Amino acid sequence: RSAAHVVLIGGDGIGPEVVEAAAQCLEEAANLAGREVRFTRAAGGGEAIDRGLGPMPDATIQACLHSDGVLLGAVGGPRWDRLPGALRPEAGLLELRRALGAFANIRPVRLFEGLEDATPLRPEVARGTDLVIVRELLGGLYYGARGRRDQDGRILAFDTMEYADVEIDRVARFAFELARKRRRKLCLVDKANILETSRLWRERVESLAGEYPDVECTYQYVDSCAMKLVQSPRSLDVLLCENTFGDILSDEAAVLAGSLGMLASASIGGPVGLYEPVHGTAPDIAGQGLANPIGAILSAALLARLDLQWDDVAAMIEEAVAATLQEGFRTRDLVAGRATEGAGGGAGTPAVRVVGTREMTAQILERLPLFA
Amino acid sequence: RSAAHVVLIGGDGIGPEVVEAAAQCLEEAANLAGREVRFTRAAGGGEAIDRGLGPMPDATIQACLHSDGVLLGAVGGPRWDRLPGALRPEAGLLELRRALGAFANIRPVRLFEGLEDATPLRPEVARGTDLVIVRELLGGLYYGARGRRDQDGRILAFDTMEYADVEIDRVARFAFELARKRRRKLCLVDKANILETSRLWRERVESLAGEYPDVECTYQYVDSCAMKLVQSPRSLDVLLCENTFGDILSDEAAVLAGSLGMLASASIGGPVGLYEPVHGTAPDIAGQGLANPIGAILSAALLARLDLQWDDVAAMIEEAVAATLQEGFRTRDLVAGRATEGAGGGAGTPAVRVVGTREMTAQILERLPLFA
Ligand SMILES: CC(C)[C@H](C(=O)O)[C@@H](O)C(=O)O
Ligand SMILES: CC(C)[C@H](C(=O)O)[C@@H](O)C(=O)O
């Protein structure tokens, strides 16, 4: 029996803490399922810059390419904000995404039972949210030509949003297939009333829609979608977005899940997938054991499901997370402002217990065997 | 005594209905204040296209340039979606914005008392929202070079996000000045960890911040701001955004005000300002007398304040709107799903009365004298 080989890139801020928590859960769930996983730790982001290795060392990229899946924490922070663009931690992340050929970024947004209190939305609006944002990850403004030029003494800066038909088709097909496995509703998010790239997106998606007659395909302008997302989230199933729009909408959608700390992502399409929590490095709470590890833990579950084809392991992790939340355990980000420690939601709801990264992870680990 | 001269461009869908409502309120309030206003109606958008005049006739632009202020409904609709980009209604709007030199788009977002029920947010989150989005309106992806090219049989589409230092400075100064008149907090929204244009925005704003030491200036990535906006809106005062980011965030912010139908905008910076409700043409309810006229009516108030310097008229309109809402009058968009007709909010709250465009306008007109 050969072990699965997973590369861990902690990165910066709270990245290393949450990645270790996720690795523990993945290892334990794999063991319970009679499977084996081996980890290699690799450098990336600001900490790699500080060690003189640049934002994404070649050795890391090679290790990733030879692995069965990559779990990354987060990169970046004010410490490196003054570096020129190409030398920043974020440039390293873009490089890794490209090296892995990860063109489809999948961001499931689901409100776990018991977290209705954690969202700024009315419970009756947020309840039942279960959508997925499919964000194109290797094109658009993120990878187009950018720079500055001097024009009669004025400084001009530019970025380019660029898409080729084939880049649209591959991620759109992925989104159609995903919709088929869900509620069969796909919505393309664009700004086709203004942007030429958006018009190409619309044409391609319209032409592919013919091949997926069982999927209901609609179109929405990004501004209007930003509103719908918090107004009637239950009406949404799969949202297909170009890179920048997907970046903005998926952070916005975080409020539907109670906290950015809850969200996982998978970047796939190439030989090996990259799995990351959606939250950033949160430098203000780094190293204090306060971070919510669930985004990273659910990312490990996605890795198990999508890269390793270990559905049993993925389900075990997801159910243990759900059970832990149902029993009232919360990291700080999930109680901000509303539910207070010790307060029960009434009528049989367990009391809220505010815990740190370590305790939350321990609680999840403890519940894994229940779902083995 | 010379009359103020206002150009009305109804445009498409519900545009004409709401512009007429707003013109009535402006005229009546002006009369009550002993002032005079004259209107000229001009063509623009899809209806102008249908009449063979193109999306923004030259005569309209000339009329606007010779007026004291322009009130526009909305343009666009599925009817014209198949036209090439440059011939679409939206292209006409961009042309008008440019012809007027309107580089600063001001979008106040305020939750009126009594509308707490209309937002999908928890009342305790939304209550007290009072922020302004300052959106750059003549640069970025909207006006940069765009097109397609063929590359080895693949179709490539592109749009360009471009900003010159002077374009940033003028709108940033405007935002700093505005913050000074408010709670003295300015937040620049960008994606400086990736985009070169964003880095130029940040440099310019950082350097201008020195001239406004009394304004607290912060920086936030657009993805993270999309989350904050619905998570802790009260913490925000003035948000400065490039064109596309401002477009997305201001629609999202609409949920804070209860409905997109509530939001007004002013596009200023040139010799004459352009005032528009933020909502679109809503083709599904056009011509049925159901549209919420308040976005347009509050836009007329902004016109009075900013272009005509008629503070008394502006205040009269705004207070009449607030009073009408306080007494329970609501258009359909403000009751969707929650408060039901006839239901009172309890404890002295008046019963909700669902009305159409005409009745809402009549109620506001009726209350103007109370604030004269
Ligand atoms: C750190 C940054 C480059 C990244 C992105 O925008 O892709 C992050 O915001 C994300 O969404 O994963
Ligand atoms: C119709 C469209 C061009 C316009 C824009 O994006 O500027 C609208 O969405 C707005 O926000 O005023």
From TrEMBL, chains A, B:
Its cofactor is Mg(2+); Mn(2+). Binds 1 Mg(2+) or Mn(2+) ion per subunit. NAD(+) binds at G77, P78, R79, W80, D81, R82, L83, P84, G85, A86, L87, R88, P89, E90. Keywords: Amino-acid biosynthesis, Branched-chain amino acid biosynthesis, Cytoplasm, Leucine biosynthesis, Magnesium, Manganese, Metal-binding, NAD, Oxidoreductase. It comes from the Bacteria. Pathway: Amino-acid biosynthesis; L-leucine biosynthesis; L-leucine from 3-methyl-2-oxobutanoate: step 3/4. It catalyses: (2R,3S)-3-isopropylmalate + NAD(+) = 4-methyl-2-oxopentanoate + CO2 + NADH. Gene3D superfamilies: Isopropylmalate Dehydrogenase (3.40.718.10). Mg(2+) binds at D223, D247, D251. The record marks Y142, K191 as: Important for catalysis. InterPro entries: IsoCit/isopropylmalate_DH_CS, IsoPropMal-DH-like_dom, Isopropylmalate_DH. It is found in: Cytoplasm. GO terms for molecular function: 3-isopropylmalate dehydrogenase activity. Residues 5-364 form the Isopropylmalate dehydrogenase-like domain. Substrate binds at R97, R107, R135, D223. Its EC number is 1.1.1.85. Homodimer. Belongs to the isocitrate and isopropylmalate dehydrogenases family. LeuB type 1 subfamily. This is 3-isopropylmalate dehydrogenase.
